[in-house]
């Protein structure tokens, strides 16, 4: 080092004119560029957070106000793990309630409601907590009622879709429950209940209730239930359009009763068929709609057919009409039906259909002429189980009281509500971590490069 310094001249050469000013200027320019780069990085971070995280932040949610006309999207959105729940973000009144998903490899099912006033999708978390039992959607789409398919239960759960709140309705001693029908005025629910002494081969309560269940009428305004001992075993029912009468099938006969349990008549149901659950009485009161037994299960014979409402929609049948009085002339049967879902009027019904490829649709059918109009389609593509399986539809219900005024809207971007807190945190950590690494790299490269000199 001494020898190296010894070679240096005693007097260093003079600096170029204006050299110090140039170094200071370019040093300041380097600082500015570093600061601008850092600001740009953080601007990108803020933009990414706004795009990715803000939609998932649980901001105060205002329930969609009912529009002048309820509507149905012309296409239901596909499966999404980011769909929020009724409790976290109440959706308002719903047009549809259904199970959606697949369990071929992973058990990935959702119990969903779809808004009647917008493209709102929510999971019914109360149903998820009870392992997705069969449930009923109120005729006006404002509430969901559910029991428990896993075993005896001491209460029903009434979920308010406009507030997200739950109400427990006590049943007394624990019983196996099967919900049957909801009255058009929204006040009464018919269900079948039985002391649970066994399960069917699939581990649910339905088999025992179908064999031994007694009809009960629940008054939602008081929470009290009235047992009708003469109607046993009750396995399917439908209210009359006035809400003050009820048809309940036992064996191959539909018993016509009032809300006090008094029977005033009966209608024979053809062999091998059953009263369409919840929606089987026509709006003009003239006919009962019947469908084939959906499965040749263990309940066939003298006790009737297995309704199979929680199974995927794949079996195709028809709808036949039986006159309530001997003077009526029923319409011609409706063919190629997976589910009867409700009535638009006395002369048209809404049904679910499934084509050869397994794609489900909602179709309006004019009675008499058989004219069909597709109202909506379900996304049943390979979006379930992480993109490895087709999605399946089951336990589908429509808000029957909204169908007469129903419009069809063009489906927009699904509004699925706030993301889960853990997902928000994970996305935030990843974005901030990436921003920090970019900032460190930018700072390090600037420091090593040093100020620019001419």
From TrEMBL:
InterPro entries named among the record's database cross-references: 6-blade_b-propeller_TolB-like
Keyword terms of this UniProt record: Membrane, Transmembrane, Transmembrane helix
Transmembrane residue ranges: 36-57, 419-439
Keyword Transmembrane set for record: yes
Domain of life per record: Bacteria
Name of this protein: WD40-like Beta Propeller Repeat
Species whose genome carries this gene: Micromonospora viridifaciens
